[in-house]
Amino acid sequence: MSKLDKSNLISRRTVLGTAAAGAATLAMPGYLRAQSGPIQIGHLTPLTGFLGVMGEWASLGVQLAAEEINAAGGVLGRQVDVQTEDSINPENAATKAQRMIERDNKDVILGEISSASTLAIGQVAERNKKLFIATGPRSDVLRGESCNRYMFCTDIPNTVNVNVVGESLKRDNMVDGRKFFTLTADYVFGHDLLEAAERFFEANNAELVGNELIATDLTDFSPFILKIRQAQPDVVCLNLAGNQVPNFAKQYAEFGLPFPTVGFGFNTVDGWAAGPGNITGTWPAVWYHTLDVPASLEFVERFRAKFGKTPENHAWIDYIAMKILAKAMEETQSVDNEELVDYLASGAEFDILKNRKAYFRDWDHQLIQEAYTVTARDPDEVSDVLELMELGQAVPGPDQDLTLIYPTREQSGCSL
Fold this sequence. Notes:
This protein is of the alpha/beta class. 41% of the residues lie in helices and 16% in strands.
């Protein structure tokens, strides 16, 4: 892990200037000076708590994107200044978003992983009519009943995670007539994911024989593993988040229970922390570092060259979110938030380092893109955690409509 500064404020300034440029700026009228200064991006992400490790990766991803943009001349001839702060929790996230808008005059707010904090920031963005690109949260409710004009979501939602893994389980005859026991993170993301899982079980003749809500700060899973042993399910399904996943995986392996595990929510760092032999089964993925697409592999190499390690999926998603925002500003020739919102919702396509380009749907502001499964390899075949998971084929297939795995308008409940 990098030694990120985890104080309240982490400022990454990449603005370049000279004395001559400074003198020229002073001679400009006030309104021109405002347009020639750096574009200010407020980046909120958890840097502490059970999602903090993911937030560190997100910070590195957005940093790399901003540096590449600035090295290429910036946006609209202006440099990009990304200011990253620890969102901590929903209350703090909302307070910091409001301050970034009112006092710090940020042009756009970007980031976040926690669905609960995203909901809070989204409400602030809507009140202030400020564009908020939510990079890492997955709760369907953010694209559903809590959607708003100023919030755009770049990660895949819970329904997609369930559909992608569910189709893989169906191919392996692990759904029809099977009994599932789930463990669910006890906050909005987990509750939302459980609802999506229940819909899948009901539609595919599977039985949910037990579910336990898991506090986000819990570290001892033994009472719940004993409940699994008593329930005798066919499959143990994890709706967990952050460091809950590796903590459970390690303890479950120690018990040696015969019931296979799968997950409806996964981040690369979860597998890395759990290690070979502890993480098993099939999981969803929005992106993985072995994706055999030239642009993706080049990103991985640039990231390794700068930071000395392989990017995790949150590094990728904050990277592409910053690149999407830069393209929107260039295409509109503006940082005006109303113009940016209209452009992002127009169906414009974006290169997100996958085989197929992505676009935001106009009616829920979800980024429509390919998804994948990753399956744990036999530990005897793994010599490094980077080899831990095998990436599956893109879903939907190359000739299928990308929206097949996403919630429909009727299912969503979004009303913009």
